[in-house]
Design goal:
One of its GO terms (molecular function) is GTP binding. InterPro entries: MGD_biosynthesis_adapter (IPR052539), MobB_dom (IPR004435), P-loop_NTPase (IPR027417). It comes from Sterolibacterium denitrificans. By secondary structure, the protein is an alpha/beta fold. The protein has one domain: Rossmann fold, CATH 3.40.50. Helices cover about 25% and strands about 25% of the residues. It is built from four helices and eight strands. It has a six-stranded parallel beta sheet, with helices on both faces. The protein has a two-stranded antiparallel ribbon with strand order 3-4. A hairpin with a 4-residue loop joins strand 3 and strand 4. Helix 1 packs across helix 4.
């Protein structure tokens, strides 16, 4: 599986960009998966549902299965957060895994940046950032891609991972 990431501050447009890229990759016949890192606790479950009650009772894993999808919820309890490498080992084979977050994990990534948000660029301190997708012109030593040009960004990613 080829792996390519996206880094950037909240509200920079990472999710929107990825949402626009996935259909482009799929249209080229690629099987695409995604790993999203959440910085805070999250829950896909709801109080009162059977699966929620089972987790609350102490189950380490709850596997929900239907005729349309399945999800495996794993409670870390007192375990450390698993690495991206561990998470990738659990995934079904595909052509391309897009990774949102995991800013400092050693995978090639595009920094998504909006100067209007007033945040500093990540790339000077992150050697894994190989390009910046921005909604303004930037004077940096990396390739700068137009954040609104998903076609060019998709082609850049496919070239970088050897799927072009």
């Amino acid at each position: 599986m080829k792996v390519f990431g996206f880094a950037g501050y909240s509200n920079s447009g990472k999710t929107t960009l990825i949402e626009r890229l996935i259909p482009r990759f799929v249209a080229q016949g690629l099987r695409v998966s995604l790993v999203k890192h959440a910085h805070h606790g999250f829950d896909l479950d709801r109080p009162g549902k059977d699966s929620y009650r089972h987790r609350e009772a102490g189950a380490t894993e709850v596997f929900l299965v239907s005729n349309q999808r399945w999800v495996l919820m794993h409670e870390l309890r007192d375990e450390e957060e698993p690495s991206l490498e561990h998470q990738l080992s659990l995934m079904a084979p595909c052509d391309l895994v897009l990774v949102e977050g995991f800013k400092y994990t050693a995978i090639p990534k595009i920094e998504v940046h909006r100067p209007a948000n007033g945040k500093a660029l990540l790339y000077p301190d992150n050697p894994n950032i190989i390009a910046i997708a921005a909604d303004a012109l930037l004077q940096v030593p990396l390739p700068v891609l137009d954040l609104n040009d998903s076609e060019t960004i998709a082609a850049f990613i496919l070239e970088q991972v050897g799927l072009a």
